[in-house]
Amino acid sequence: MSTGIPSVPHKKRQRARKACVPCRQRKRRCDGANPCGMCVSYAYKCHYDEQGDPATLPAPLIPEIPDSTRSISPPRTRMVAKPPSIRTKILLNSTQCAADQGVFDAAKSRYMGLSSAVAFARSLGIELQSANPPHLHSFAWNCGLRSEEKSNTHCALHDLITKEETFHFTQIYFSAIHPVFDVVDPEHFKKSVESYWNDGCKVSAFGAVVGGIIALGSLFSGRPGHPRELEIVQYAKNVLEDPTFSRLPSAEQVSAWVLRTLYLRATTRPHAAWLASCVTIHLAEASALHHEVENVELTANDKALPPRTKKITERARRLFWCAWSINSILSYDYGRSSASLGGISCKLPTKSDGNYTAQLVDLALIIPPANTEASKETRVADLLQALTLVYETPDEHNFLSLVKADLCNSFYRRLRLFNYTLDSEVVFQLTTVCNHALSAAYDLVERKLPWWNVLSAPFQYICVLLAINTSESLANVAKAKNIFDRIVSNLNTHMAIEAQNTIKLLLQDSIKKKRQELTDLEAADQAGTASEAPFTAEIDWDVLLDPSHALHLMQQDFSSF
Fold first, then answer.
1. Domain boundaries in the chain?
2. Are 122 and 42 within 8 A, CB to CB?
3. For the whole model, what pTM was predicted?
4. Chain segment 451-484, per-residue pLDDT in tens
5. CA-CA-CA-CA torsion for 211, 215, 216, 222, nearest 10 degrees?
6. Closest CA to 13 of 29, 34, 28
7. By C-alpha distance, which of 194, 209, 216, 282 is closest to 240?
């Protein structure tokens, strides 16, 4: 025990003066040597900055969040200025302990936690100061009784579409979809696709990105689009599922899966789109996109990797948060769990003119976290707070206005399950958001931009109005249905007509229910009139109107009447 006493100032002297950048980033003790013992043990690239004091540590991830929100269980109030839930979690996870950190092998483009069985042999070898520590590899992962799957056979993309058509649909994509889902750098893509085409469209993960962009550009080009659109979609899918490429996750694969998720959300059943969005998140984790680069350890072979530029870092952030946002919003709307990641340290994307990715992420961050252990009152308060935050978010893009309506409709559906009766203020917020979304939906349909919620948001809104069933909500049904009918007429698809018929049925049933209620009330009124004899009072008006009797009447006891 005596040896522990002088060790306290000794630790302070080791830590106070100067620590190398890797040790400070990983919150590890540094001995101040060059290279330090910790970097030698873990094969870090040891280096010092000019200051070397705590003032040079990275700034907080989200500085606008006050200190009071950094507690594990922050107090929740209905009116707040910023989404508190996931932003607080990101802030807490920006500095991770060793048990939560991961290692990234850039050569094979794969990330895993330091606790992984795959990383343990390498970690042990480094700890034992082995001259040749085991590399990051899945030693003994299985018995090795069978060989791995072979690569599939693919056609060339130029067999499905011409180069000129590719650039045509690419232009449509970057005009319509890219401003919201910024997952591909336009300048880099145009240069790469030129080389890709000149090189014979060799099968690669980048080819899946090209196929995804062509498919979405065709979808948003107006009907009927490219005649081989579905074949191009299938081509991209086959490449993504090819074992040759799926074994090596990459940012290109994440981009391609985001594009596939968007296409599936706009064209097919919700389960397929939800599944694709979850795959996208897991690939983002496998590529370490959910972490800032300083929060990920690199293997020894990656010490010479060039540092990320600000542009590349921002692109990685935008890609991850696009994937996270579509998974969160789609899962919440569909009523399924979103893909969960253990600790996100990736910083939020910055806002820029003409780009609305950051605004999309902000809306997704408003979604209350799934907390089934919380009380009913807490969960209701979270939903009301979230609805207010969506109401206060400005409408900067038509698609984002529809996303706001989707979220408000989702909040109401959950509030209804809690048997919560909305007050007039909440109804006003909901109808204000959704009425604006009606105009946005019609404008998008007129411009031949078939975002999935141009039909679903108005449909759900009318259902919500009928379910609220108050004078404030029902007063909006006529306007909502009128715009919805115009959208259906413009689309003229089986899905649109089916939704229109469903609204008609629900509206007719609502009218029948109101009429039945009115009939019941009229019957009660008539029954009361028939069963009771008319009351005739014998009143002496001369006495009643005589002021001299007023005091006498006031002093009488009427309690027996």
1. 12-106, 151-268, 373-515
2. no
3. 0.74
4. 999 999 999 999 999 999 999 999 999 999 999 9
5. 150
6. 29
7. 209
